[in-house]
Amino acid sequence: MLDRGDHVSDLISPYVLGALEPDEIETVESHLSSCDQCRALADEERDIAGLLPYLAQPLPVPLRARRRLLNQIQEESQPDPPPVPIRKTRRPTGLLSRLGWVAAVPAMALAILFFFNGVQMQEQVQQRDTALSVLEQRQSTFTEFVSSSRGAVTNLHGTEAAPRAQGGLLLNPNRDAALLIVTGLTTPLVGHSYVVWMIKGDQRMNAGVMPVDNRGRGQISIPLPQGLNSFDNIILTEEVQPRVTNPNGTILMAAKADG
């Protein structure tokens, strides 16, 4: 079990942004070398900081190109004028008949290009905003659990099937919930899922699927309306079906619920 005072979570954000003094940097790095919890928080902060350059507003389409496109749309949307008798003239043939099309193609191509570029840039901005919102939500959840004054940590260790895996279950009594954070896992096989189980005697509760990124890290919030002491053990298994009622796959991580 770790004490709140042992962590440097308040210094993680300025550390990632390079805003600390040399002695503070040395203190944080010394602590991160031995604290998986704060190291995971630092990784989350780096992920968020890495998205900041993408928040800049997209470059606007040049005014001349927008006017040209709008004029072209207005001209095409106007009804055709009534036919006016005109003197028949000889229609250009050969090279002269093709010059008109050749002159019109660049303007149309430019208008179409700016239109689709604008749509694509807008979609990219929306995707980045969504990704940043997800990261901010994860960061907020993590900070809330870590800063809980009555919080506790239960360490999980990898089995022979996942010797490099390690993690912690952070208890937040204020929410009757816990946050499970793991590192050192490989991404599950195609069609497989990592499932968290809360065990009490011969009862098995499927606590949900643990998503794991390509760095081997994952986290999941687990509701505990009756508290962590109502369970005996915690295990993480690899299952073929995520909605199974009993663990049938390989056990990757395990811990006693009381730490």
UniProtKB/TrEMBL annotation:
<dbReference type="InterPro" id="IPR051474">
    <property type="entry name" value="Anti-sigma-K/W_factor"/>
</dbReference>
<dbReference type="InterPro" id="IPR018764">
    <property type="entry name" value="RskA_C"/>
</dbReference>
<dbReference type="InterPro" id="IPR041916">
    <property type="entry name" value="Anti_sigma_zinc_sf"/>
</dbReference>
<keyword id="KW-0472">Membrane</keyword>
<feature type="transmembrane region" description="Helical">
    <location>
        <begin position="95"/>
        <end position="116"/>
    </location>
</feature>
<protein>
    <recommendedName>
        <fullName>Regulator of SigK</fullName>
    </recommendedName>
</protein>
<keyword id="KW-0812">Transmembrane</keyword>
<dbReference type="InterPro" id="IPR027383">
    <property type="entry name" value="Znf_put"/>
</dbReference>
<dbReference type="Pfam" id="PF13490">
    <property type="entry name" value="zf-HC2"/>
</dbReference>
<keyword id="KW-1133">Transmembrane helix</keyword>
<keyword id="KW-1003">Cell membrane</keyword>
<dbReference type="GO" id="GO:0005886">
    <property type="term" value="C:plasma membrane"/>
</dbReference>
<feature type="domain" description="Putative zinc-finger">
    <location>
        <begin position="7"/>
        <end position="39"/>
    </location>
</feature>
<dbReference type="Pfam" id="PF10099">
    <property type="entry name" value="RskA_C"/>
</dbReference>
<feature type="domain" description="Anti-sigma K factor RskA C-terminal">
    <location>
        <begin position="107"/>
        <end position="250"/>
    </location>
</feature>
<dbReference type="GO" id="GO:0006417">
    <property type="term" value="P:regulation of translation"/>
</dbReference>
<feature type="transmembrane region" description="Helical">
    <location>
        <begin position="177"/>
        <end position="197"/>
    </location>
</feature>
<dbReference type="GO" id="GO:0016989">
    <property type="term" value="F:sigma factor antagonist activity"/>
</dbReference>
